[in-house]
Structures are given as structure tokens and as C-alpha cells.
Known about the structure:
Helix 1 (23-38) packs parallel to helix 3, helix 6 packs across helix 11 (279-289) and helix 7 crosses helix 11. By secondary structure, the protein is α/β, with parallel strands linked by helices. The chain has twelve helices and twelve strands. 34% of the residues lie in helices and 20% in strands. It has a ten-stranded mixed sheet. It has a two-stranded antiparallel ribbon with strand order 5-6.
Amino acid sequence: MREVAIVAFGQSDHRRDSAEVSEVEMLMPVLHQVLDAVGLRAGEIDFTCSGSSDYLAGRAFSFTMALDGVGAWPPISESHVEMDGAWALYEAWTRLLTGEAETALVYSYGKSSPGNLREVLTRQLDPYYVAPLWPDSVSLAALQAQALLDAEDSGADERALAAVAARSRTAAEDNPHAQMTGSPPPEALLNDPYLVRPLRRHDCPPVGDGAAAVVLAAGDTARRLCRRPAWIRGMDHRTEAHSLGVRDLTRSPSTRLAAERAGAFEAPADLAELHAPFTSQELILRRELGLGEGVRVNPSGGALAANPMMAAGLIRLGEAAAAIHRGAADRALAHATSGPCLQQNLVAVLEGDVL
Length: 355
């Protein structure tokens, strides 16, 4: 298989409200950052792919405004996914694997501040049986968390959830882009009131605005553009049944299958960046991916520290790649999710050359 790597990664500072800038103004500094890192101009990129959601923007084909900012003239080879940018990266990766391109620019962005995100996300539910009930994203995550706590084989309790939150937001103190940093110890967090039982506010992701971008390159081009490329050794994505009622919410078989197909179980990883917006979901993902205590999970703080819609999954891939770039990891797992209760899951295996 042709070698393809992430050679540059950039992201914005994630904020609760960025009303003073448009999506394009939020995105453009990030694009300049990754292109400058590899010494390329937008017109020198062979393929461009983006991820965003018109539901967040509140208008159809909103992604074309961002594309105008990138520069679509003279005509470029471009595509867009109405998904998290991790799936845009998957499309770009397959394009490079076929030999149709040597380089690709992948970017994604989301502004959740203009509307009520919990209500907006109900539009992704089954339109016949679930969406008419208007269950919001936090309430559905609470159902999943309660199922996990009630499961005899999970070994999970509310203190375990609080420990995930405390570890993640403490780790985010070293992340200059994080929206939420620092945390009291788990024992103190358990004194907080419930948001939706059994989830407290620290069990849930912050609502915020942000953008991210990566540059992909193949073979010798990647080696020329980056001192230590993060080679994508495998990547796969799978989905659960749309109906929540036919799923075991305490498990994520699509994550395990995607990990198997990506080669995640062929060798141990040093680091894992998991897109787990809720603390209970990290426990589920750890079990499905077989991550032991020796694996550093979400040293960036993860989605509990910053969760810009449509960009948080791409950020997980970017953070894992950045760790390889700077020599902080040799083999890393990156995970992205979309939909309620870990409905769709993508897993990538990244490796760096031996130093």
C-alpha cells in the first residue's frame, strides 16, 4: 500500500463564543499555519477536502464561503463531507492511496455558539421514532452512562467518571488551545450537582467554536515536507444501527471492528487520542480498544477540554500526529466519533520512523 502521512497540523484557540469573527475568519489563520509549516501555497495542493455542518451555520451550502476563503480559482480538486473533519481526512487519504494526488489539505470548523447545540443535535436522530421526542444529546449520553454504571461487567462507577474528567482537564493545562483547563480532584467533583443524572457538568464537553486543519502527503513528498511524518498505517470507520433501542449502549462493536481493520491490535500503542465527549464514553472506548494503564490517553485533554463540533475528531488525529512529529510517541491511535452514543466511529493507526 502506498505510504501516506500527516505532515502538518494546526488548530484555533477554542472558545465558548467567537461572535466577533465569521467561520472564514476563524479558519484562515489555521490554514495559513499548516501551509506555512510545509512551505506550500494553497494552489500547490493537489486535493482539498473539508468537513462542516450546515445545521450549525443555519444556512445551506455554508461550506462554500470557507472554500472561497481557501481559494477555489483557478479551479481546484475539492470535496466536502457533512461530517466531522476526520471523515474528510479519510476521503483525502483514499485519494492519495490511489495515486491521484501527492498532497492534500483537510480542514474542518464549527461554530456552536449561535444556537442551542443540544437542540440542533436532535436533527441527527431517527426521524420517525426518536427525533419527535426531542431527546437532547446530553440526555442520550446520560442514558448511555447509566446503562454503563448498571452493567455488572463494566466495573464503572461515578468516581471513575470523575477521574476521567479530572485527568483530562488537568492534562489540558499544557494545551494552549484548550477551552477548559484545570480540575479539582475526583472526590471534589463528586460534590457537584447533576446536570442530567448520572452526568455532572464535568462529565460533559464544553460547547464552543473552533477549527482545525492538516496536510497529508505521500511517500518521498512527505519526507521532504516533514522531518518526522506521522505515517497512517491503517484507517477504517464503521457505524452502529441507527435505532438506539437495538444497540447495547455499554459496548461499541463498530469501534472494535474499525480498530481491527486499521491494524490497531497488531502492536501496542504509546498514546491514544480518543474522541470521547462524555466521560462514560472514554471508559467504553478504552475497553473496546484494549487500552491498558501504560497507554497515555488524551494528553491534550481530549474532547472534555475542547469539543468544537465537526472539528474535534480531526483534532484527535492531528494531536496524535503532532505527538509523533515532535518525538513524544512512536505509535499512536486516533479515534473520532459522530452521532449519538458513539454511533459512528473511525480509528486510525499512526507511526513515526525510528529516531
